[in-house]
Specification:
- Helix content is about 70%, strand content about 0%.
- It has helices at about 15-40, 45-65, 70-90, 95-120, 130-145, 145-155, 160-170, 175-195, 200-215, 235-250, 255-265, 270.
- About 40% of the residues are buried.
Length: about 280
């Protein structure tokens, strides 16, 4: 009697170990260059020490991605993009340029993951259709798009933060310093919910409420529809709101920290409704 071959389903998605290794090497090079920039920079310091901190976090989670690709990949990209944004604000080319290559490696690893999942769906616990992967890509992009906004408010030092404070003050917002920090925290939470897929439904609803308030306080609702018009209309803001609101209905899908937690733990029903 011929033995049947049993293929065990994996509990998580799968990236390329070669690409992950190259990504880790690139992050290490960027980390060394960031330390060099920190010690030779004429900037006060707060603007530069966050770069190696976030790159170190990206390296740690790149290592984790060998065993848990979903968590490792998502958090590593998240951390790298924060460091990249800070380096971009201060034109640190020695860090920015190699991070372009690192980003390309991350993108290649994501494409590899999607390809493997589509080609051999029986190998995975969560075989996804191309349509679901398309939604996942949109979710990731929207979430990562929040990173430059909260980075300049929370992690990039006083120069970009003061620019935001002046902009808030010009809008007539009382206590603009407090609201800049509050806005940064809201944007950080939205980025975590969408790009990492953590408490996605709750985070999406909170992000929509934040964007509605920001659009109102920014006077965009009274500046007409077209975003390219004087002052910027509400076209772009409402489009962003509608896209995010859709994930409050569907959740993050399987390529998310929410799914990793659901697979590993028996979560209370009320927590599952927030994911």
């Amino acid at each position: 009697m011929q033995k049947q071959r049993v293929v065990r389903a994996k509990s998580s998605f799968e990236g390329s170990h070669i690409i992950t290794s190259l990504t880790l090497l690139g992050l290490m090079i960027c980390f060394v260059m960031a330390l060099r920039e920190h010690y030779i920079s004429v900037l006060p310091g707060a603007e530069t020490y966050f770069i190696p901190i976030w790159l170190a976090l990206a390296m740690c989670f790149s290592l984790i991605s060998f065993k848990n690709f979903t968590c490792g990949f998502l958090i590593s990209v998240f951390s790298m993009l924060i460091a990249w944004r800070i380096a971009g604000i201060y034109h640190m080319l020695s860090v920015m340029v190699p991070l372009i290559i690192v980003f390309a490696l991350f993108l290649s690893n994501f494409i590899y993951c999607v390809h493997k999942n589509l080609k051999s769906p029986t190998r995975y616990l969560h075989p996804l259709s191309l349509f679901i992967w398309q939604l996942t890509f949109i979710r990731l992009y929207i979430g990562f798009d929040f990173i430059p906004h909260f980075t300049e408010k929370l992690f990039a030092g006083p120069v970009p933060r003061f620019a935001d404070i002046r902009a808030f003050a010009n809008l007539g917002i009382t206590d603009p310093v407090f609201f800049v920090y509050l806005a940064g925290c809201c944007e950080l939470g939205a980025a975590i919910a969408l790009s990492l897929g953590f408490l996605t439904r709750l985070g999406s609803i909170a992000a929509v409420l934040y964007l509605l308030m920001a659009t109102y306080l920014g006077h965009h609702f009274i500046d007409g529809f077209i975003w390219a018009g004087p002052g910027g209309g509400w076209e772009f803001a409402v489009m962003w709101i509608m896209l995010i609101l859709s994930f409050a209905v569907t959740g993050a899908n399987a390529f998310s920290i929410d799914q990793v937690l659901s697979d590993r733990f028996t979560l209370p029903r009320w927590i599952q409704k927030l994911m």
